[in-house]
Amino acid sequence: MSRVKVAVLGATGSVGQRFIQLLDHHPFFEVTHLCASENSAGKTYGEVMKTRWKISSDIPAYAKNLVITTPDPAKTKDVVLAFSGLDSNVAGEVEKNYANAGIHIISNSKNHRMDPTVPILSAEVNSSHLEVLTSQKRKVRLLPIRTVRSWVLQFLSNLFWIVLELSPLCSFLCRRSAALVILEFQRWIF
Prior knowledge:
Layout (H helix, E strand, L loop, with lengths): L3 E6 L4 H10 L5 E7 L9 H5 L11 H4 L3 E2 L11 E4 L3 H13 L3 E4 L15 H4 L3 H6 L6 E3 L6 H7 L3 E6 L1 H7 L5 E5 L6
Parallel strand pairs: 1-2, 1-4, 2-3, 4-5, 5-6
Antiparallel strand pairs: 7-8
């Protein structure tokens, strides 16, 4: 199975950096686009982040040579999914544009958390809410996450996940009709 092409929105911020780190060598996702403000657009991620990288490990090699673009769905047409670490001041409009363009969004911002058609996911509590994504009446493709330590980041980083069968997440992201059920053995990810 080929990996799902993804973008990281807000790639230069601390949440975006964490997404980039956790997506390094990920078996299901391939980061093809890094998006940030106009101040960083047009430069390579390595150039911009040389003095701004906050995480203890080095900048992942795959990210260093990617050219940063502004967050615009027209510039990231080939992605199926975008991980958004955008600040709440800009996330609302940008994430809505991505969702309206048919790109699924996993968001760390607070902007869409009260929308009744947008599920909030916390794996320990309500992983069944992924089913809401397939039955949404309008074409909103937003999935807010509880915190940076939430289910999505656990999914990205946890080496102890066991894949039992294909699930709604995989079918939703990969556009395949299968069900993915994943069990997690408890461990800290930070």
